[in-house]
């Protein structure tokens, strides 16, 4: 921490503050109000923000730093989930063995896939990773049914070995007795703030993952990855073998994905093949691009952005819309609801697509570019204000 630059320290402290204060920040509207629909401070969604943030941070090390676009990272997410659930079935419901195995198995799996895929670059690399992910999905769905339980999904049953379990053991996922599902609700006036054990455990891993990413970004290894992204051919001409660096980045990124999969299974002890589909890999890419590939906080913002729309806008149906516009004349109310219902509920992807297009067109650097523009505008405004005040102040 002491060796970090001041700007990096501020960034890390900002992430820590957001993670700790999330129950307050994500519940700005009073319970029971019309705008409470947009609150996101409930346990399930906050957990999603955290472990998908870990996933996006890891993917950013490969794509943002190295420039290698993988469409197969969902395979490592699924492998991590399956590994964690198997630990629950064999040993017990403490999440630590499951998370450790998730990271190890995802690392080995990513090493095998990366060793083959990184023989190519550009679009050919992306297609290879996509092919491996789809093969992994097909095998989990049908071929490896004894290990994955096929389309039903892998889950914990009462007759599983669970060698560390006894009559007094906790039968739900926990961290040394702290149950993932335990939630404390703080009522302050019309507001209800929920503090969930599972979320804060995920948040701790998110902070640790962000710190590790920060150290990688500022390390000589990170500088080498940036050089590879800038011009890998020139590096090869200088006699530097870039493959060990790209393979290391791929494996680290895969281990991040395995950790995210393990956390996902720790919150809900069920692993299914759908987590390995190409659509899940595409969602990871969207998270990183929306937030800002190559930036530190951008992928976390992108993950939160997409998960917010998925969980909040998808719940807005015609009944909710009619409640919002009930004060209007019936004809106008029905017309507005008819138009808006295409963009919410089942049509929330349309809204997300339009926002994605707008960000790509007007903010090619993602949400972080927008934040930087606002910051620069504010600095320029303050500088102009100081200059004008200095000119109007009479000299003594």
UniProtKB/TrEMBL annotation:
Membrane-traversing stretches: 12-29, 49-69, 98-116, 123-144, 197-217, 244-264, 284-309, 321-344, 350-371
UniProt KW Membrane keyword: yes
InterPro entries: ABC_transp_permease (IPR001851), LivM-like (IPR043428)
Membrane topology qualifier: Multi-pass membrane protein
Record key words, sorted: Cell membrane, Membrane, Transmembrane, Transmembrane helix
One Pfam family cited in the UniProt record for this chain: BPD_transp_2
Record localization: Cell membrane
Protein name: Amino acid/amide ABC transporter membrane protein 2, HAAT family
Organism from which the protein derives: Amylibacter marinus
